[in-house]
Structure prediction request, 125 residues.
Amino acid sequence: MLIYAIVFISLALLFYTIAVFSERIQGALKPWHLGLFDLGFVCDVTGTLLMQNISRNSVGVTSSSYLHELTGIIAIALMFIHIIWASVVLFKNNEVTKSRFHKFSIIVWIIWLIPFISGAVAHMK
Prediction:
């Protein structure tokens, strides 16, 4: 099950990174960016649920795992808000808002990296 969790979390990183940086390079939010945000979110939730299932069966909960879990919940919540906000921006079709959306995307992406990196580092030990 661990390999599937790693694959899904890695796919989340791939989809989200491509969406965030292509949106920034292209200078405006486009529908296909939202599609990649959605794919990234689904992969992240799937990988997180798999990891959670694995951690239930392991011993040795530490304070760093609590921090990882807390930042992971925050990151998933922000990804969900990000998707909702991107949908609203695309629906309203305001060019100024679409061109500024990338600033929010970068912030969410950076926050998402915190549990991604802390999880990877913690499981390498």
Notes: The chain has a mean pLDDT of 89. Residues 29 and 98 are 5 Å apart (CA to CA). The longest helix spans residues 63-92. Residues 2-124 form one domain.
